[in-house]
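Continuing the series of single-chain predictions for the mutant panel. This is the parent chain; the variants come on the following pages.
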Amino acid sequence: MKLFKRVSVLLCVTLIIGILGVGCQKKEDKKEKEVSQEVSKEASEESKENKDASEDKKPVTLTFVSWNEVGYEYLTEINNVSEAYKKEYPNVTIKVEQIQPTEYDNTMKIRNSANQLPDVFLVRASNLLTYKDIMVPLNDLEATKNNNIATDCALDGNVIGIPQGSFNEFVYYRKDIFEKYDLDIPRTWDEFVDTAKTIKEKGEYIPLLLGGKDSWTTYPFNEYMPLLEANDGKYLNVMASKDEPFTEGEPFYTAYTKIKNLYDSEVCGDDPLGYGWDQQKAMFLAGQGAMLAAGQWFAQEYDTMGGKKEEELGIFILPVNDSKEQPLNVITTAEGFMGTPKTSKHIEESKEFINWFFMSDYYKEYIDYTQQLSTMKGVSADIPFFNEAFEDIDLEYVVYDAGNEEYKRIADTISFDMKGMGQEMLSGKDLEKMMGDMNKKWKAARNK
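Parent structure:
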């Protein structure tokens, strides 16, 4: 099954002129030349008027903040977004800031509390509800109307952010290690665990690099696997309607049992809680580990570190299924919702910039570089590296939903943290006790 269906629009203008005599031909040519010159003149005058109008405006500086390291590199070094934007809006300067992914959410919450949010910033899908009441609605933008996902993520009828891209989740593996041990691509959960155990038995490499010192690195397992087990991207909303969603037989329990078995196999190294994401990346680049679970975004990050993904890496979808006869579920996530807060002193200019970002050629170039899937109608990303993961596989796409308000209320009440639970499981905490305790807390929170 193919992930990407390329949609191309070919605008072809064919001029057919009958041979009706040389004099007639010259007359038509002259007429067409005059029309062409007139259209060109009007377009030039219109462009000049727009530019002159922009130049007459007061100089404005917009702050734009994100966590995407690869995106920051493109925005500031590869194709400076401020310089590109000034070609159409000479009075506007875009000041780009990047905050480390591990610090981003907390930093933005602090800025929000101090009413110091930037003019434009990215909101994670899981935090859309947090910012629902402080963001400017973007319903009227052409970029919103031409986005495939934005309106589906509207809150109370308002689009508060337009997703920069979407991506799937993969397991990246080093080709040299798999070839050395003659390993096949695993297609079931048991095969995946057995593959990791085989590598461990050889004693040369860490089978699965996890970087558990940073809790967020467990998300492909602890956050996404319950949704994959349920084959429902909105399963967190279903959880909110149950008193004891952590009971045996429920998707959460089934997924966490599988994860616990993986962690207990000690295939993540002697001390998976002793190193974090940055160390994990460096170890993978150095060939010290065989596999790493991460989103589509990691591919470009690997090259940025000095790797050569096409030569060194292969990818496959994390096989949560129990049988090869079952379709393989894969998470699809929309991320990086670009919006502007009501506290911005330049709301209209911020909206203009957001609209330009998605509606200009810059967007296509940006997603090609960051290796994301396009969220805009009629725009396809050039990402051939990922095609091998989808060849000859029956797939079910599970579109991630971070949960509704009812789920958020319960989760906030009990400080529910799936990624943090991953760290606890890595430390050896008893799974049955964890599930029992979570059922009690969840039920009590619902009954409130």
